[in-house]
Sequence to fold (280 residues):
Amino acid sequence: METQHSGLEPGLYIVAGPIGNLGDLTPRAAEILRRADVIAVEDTRVSARLLRHAGSDRPMIPYHDHSAEGVRARLVERMASESVALLSDAGTPLISDPGYKLVRDARAAGRRITTLPGPSAAIAALTLSGLPTDRFLFMGFLPAKAKARADALAEVAALRATLIFYESGPRLSDSLGAMAEGLGDRDAAVSREISKAFEETATGTLTQLSARYADAPPRGEIVVIVGPPGEAPPASAEDADAALLEAMARLPVSRAAGEVAKKLGLDRRALYARAMELKG
Ligand code: SAM
Fold:
């Protein structure tokens, strides 16, 4: 069937918008917003501003993943013959925003799906943090209740990865304190108002940052980046001796040295020599 408005191919267009600075809307994203048959948005008032900026007069439909099933089913149906754009209030749709179920169902129905990549606060903050970027985990918003928050932190405490959290000003100091407790007092960065007039990034340990914001909850939108756990301190000579003696009570010297080397991450030959000394 012919498309109704735009000449765009029918299907779903996932459109990343700015995270504060309208200048970050890509020309390609603006073009899709001007040409799509319909635009699924979180909040029509918020998106109206971006559409004006993009010069778009296309109709909007409110969409959330928790919208009634019928809303999603109708959008997926329309994608068979029309171009449907998906836009969030800020940044990349689906990232702590609606869209996952729409994409899932569009895929299941065999619709054409394309994405217009652009800003996301998570990646923007990661690049500002000065913390390792080779392995990272996006945690979204932590639960508000203390027990659920502690459980969520405990689940990832052992991971050797930088962690990315979305946060709000009033909760910030409290959350940083809970992170210090649950993850250890790691290096961290707090970025707020990225790409806006009052953009700011503060770095320090979680405890230092928690104290900094305790009496002055910051305004605006916030991302917290937490570095990976530090290396465990090397085992002391006393630890090594105790482990060797324990292992030698069960095993021949060379196997005891091998076992302790593996367990404590120490050199097997040096441990063997030390075991012979201890034995002597
Ligand atoms: N989809 C968005 C994205 O791609 O970043 C995120 C949407 S989520 C509902 C909103 C949260 O993202 C805010 O509470 C804040 O944690 C973070 N955020 C959005 N814009 C930001 C900005 N300009 N500076 C810092 N954090 C921002």
In short: Residues 19-20, 88, 90-92, 95-97, 120-122, 166-168, 191-196, 221-223 surround S-adenosylmethionine (CB under 6 Å). The two ends are 89 Å apart (CA to CA). DSSP finds eleven helices and ten strands in the chain. The mean pLDDT is 95.
